[in-house]
Amino acid sequence: MPRDIENKKLIEIDIRFNPEVIAQFFFTRSGLWKHLVGTALAVLWILAGATLQLALPNAFPTVPLLTAPLVTVFFVQRRKPVAAFVAAFAMGIVLDANSFNPIGSSSLILVIVAAASTFLNFKLTKHYILGTAVQAAVATATYAILAILLQRPNSTWSDSFAILIRFLGTTPIVAPILALIAFPLMDLVERLLLGKKSIDQDNEDE
Amino acid sequence: MKQRAIAAAIAAFILALVLSFIPSKFTDKIAAGTRFFTQPAQAWADFTGRVAKAVLGDETAALKPNDKLDLQNELAISQTALNAAWAQYATAMHENKFLKNRLKLVYDDNRFTLTLCKIIKRDPIASFYDRCIINRGYKDGLRTGQLVLAIPPEPENGEERSQPSLLGIIRDVAPDNATVTLTTAADFTMTCNIPERNVTGLLAGRANKSDQKPQIIIPPGSLVLADPAGPEHDAVQVGDKVFTSSLGNNPEGIDNILVGYVQQITTADTGAPILHIQQPVQNAQVTYVLVALKAITQ
């Protein structure tokens, strides 16, 4: 055996602990807290979007209050694309489970809504108010059209068409107003819990 | 970033498509588990909807905010206690009669028990006025053809409480839930009569589809009693009460249940009168309903 490798070990593993990094991960807002609270907030928005869409039409049957597409738009604007699609998928499962629809139909619809919203988000990044209003209106209208096509029961085409006209007539007004009120409130909650610095850092990373 | 978005979109779309084709025995378990874990969120959302409606409604507009909240709290507690007591009473009565008469299968057409049920699903978009699902089913004694009634509103100024009125009919029954076709559905039909005029006719949810224009104004209009027959069919007046009359073609049907009041009388092209019936309770805001189960005679 050559002399220069006689004293060397076959495998060497070097483990080092960096106390300052560990302290930052566990005890600062940009560490574990950010990931846990961020995940909890995401779950909260998903549950709120799905359950409010099931409950609000009972209280306000004539107003098209579709919160699931709006929460999808919120995720598209504020999170990474993968997170937005996962959120849309999960909201669809909650909607289908609680409304006794076949599992997967609402997920399919919300994934398509998320895709349309992501496309618009790339085009309207610099215009916050206009972008939010357009995305909210398009997302809600897309959801209504696909819901009537894919989840329509045994009603006639004229009835479905009339319902569609009603939704397309009121959605461009109601959805942007709801989004422009709800999104800043949701942002405020996230900034209070996660900290402005942590959110700005995420935006810089993207 | 765009490539990642496209990849995520394609992956999510394929996953959702695959989920749609999974056999129902697996998806039923997923659905049941999801319903179990999201029940608190659903209850919170229902509460939020009720509070939002109460806050934006005008019934308590003259009250101060604290008085409104106190009244809402008292009303919620009272309604919960009343509904719980009513459900216990109705269930106990039904079980008592069933156990006493289980060997005898003859129904009494004039007596029935009421079971309190909650509407657990109502499509917000396409079929809001056509169908809904209630939280009781075959295991609770519900059967296809049984009548679903609306709880009468609270009487005002010391008036007598009105009787429950017809809201729909059970079309399909599962072990734990049942599908109700509402009276405002396009395919709803039922024979009815006006006792004080000795007139019978066929009640329909909407007018004949061939002359029906697309429904743009919500909610749907009044019910229609077409081709009334009887010696006094020309003597029907606005305000006459309309009741159910099964004529023996629905074994679970119960007669003399209030449907509504004659609101308007028009004439068809053939010259026959068409009676427009106004229901006492609008089904858009209904959360709890009663199902009428026929009593079994001793």
Notable features of this structure?
heterodimer, A: 206 residues, mainly alpha, 8 helices, B: 298 residues, alpha+beta, Thrombin, subunit H, six-stranded antiparallel beta barrel, six-stranded antiparallel β-barrel, 4 helices, 29% helix, 29% strand, globular
In short:
Chain A is mainly α and 206 residues long.
Task: Describe, in plain words, how this protein is organized in 3D.
The complex is a heterodimer of chains A (206) and B (298). By secondary structure, chain A is mainly α. Chain A has a domain at 68-194. Helix content of chain A is 76%, strand content 0%. Chain A has 8 helices and no strands. The longest helix of chain A is centred in the last third of the chain and has 38 residues, at 157-194. Chain A is elongated, with a radius of gyration of 23 Å. The model of chain A has no long low-confidence stretch (mean pLDDT 82). Chain B has a 6-stranded antiparallel β-barrel with strand order 1-2-5-4-3-12. Chain B has a domain at 106-298: Thrombin, subunit H (Beta Barrel). In chain B, β4 (165-173) and β5 form a beta hairpin. Chain B is built from 4 helices and 12 strands. Chain B has 298 residues and is an alpha+beta fold. Helices cover 29% and strands 29% of the residues of chain B.
SSE layout and pairing:
The complex is a heterodimer of chains A (206) and B (298).
Chain A: H1 19-27, H2 32-59, H3 67-78, H4 81-98, H5 105-123, H6 128-150, H7 157-194, H8 196-205
Helix pairs in contact in A: 2-3, 2-4, 3-4, 3-5, 3-6, 4-5, 5-6, 6-7, 7-8
Chain B: H1 2-20, H2 24-37, H3 39-56, H4 65-100, E1 107-121, E2 131-134, E3 147-150, E4 165-173, E5 178-182, E6 189-194, E7 199-204, E8 223-229, E9 241-244, E10 258-267, E11 273-278, E12 288-296
Antiparallel strand pairs in B: 1-2, 1-12, 2-5, 3-4, 3-12, 4-5, 6-7, 6-9, 7-8, 8-11, 9-10, 10-11
